[in-house]
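Many introductory courses stop at the sequence. We go one step further.
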Amino acid sequence: MLDVLKSKLIEPLESVKGRKLTDVRYLDIGISGAKHSDSGTGIHVVAHGVNLVFENDLSLYLHWDGVKGWVEYVLVCGNVDPIDDDQGYSMSDDANWKGLIQQPVFDFKIFGYKKHEIRTTDLQGTELEIRTYENEPHLVSLSFPHGKTVAFANFYFEENYVPKLPVGDDVWAIFDEDVTVAAIRDHNFDKLDAE
């Protein structure tokens, strides 16, 4: 699954390193208008994904998806729109994004599970099956100048904005570094890389 990690995350993320962010669009399927959830404390939850637009109109779409060989929902990205972008809306004037517009991406980190086993049992506790997934991504952190970061994760929406499960069919934009660190710690995520 290392090749899939490279094509679904590492290569698209590499394509935006050093480029300035010019616009941010939140993408929702079948929803028109601004419908994301905002914690008021630096977390936005979007139904499908986020389109980061960089100089020279290069887009990076971060969204949840089902990828063969990984658990049902993972975080992926690419330079091609996975849905009809007409459903998206700009967030560039949002206070969380304003300080990042016209700033270059310095670096990125990918977190998830190097090895993830799901065991199924019958009602008596007899093990029926073990499914093993490798290099399974769930959180990406982008670094900008002046120590600013924004992380993206595929979690389910939670009323209290504390992710219970390490997977989900929403994308969280997390602007608070402490929340990002807690999510990585609480879900025992590993740092994933190309090796």
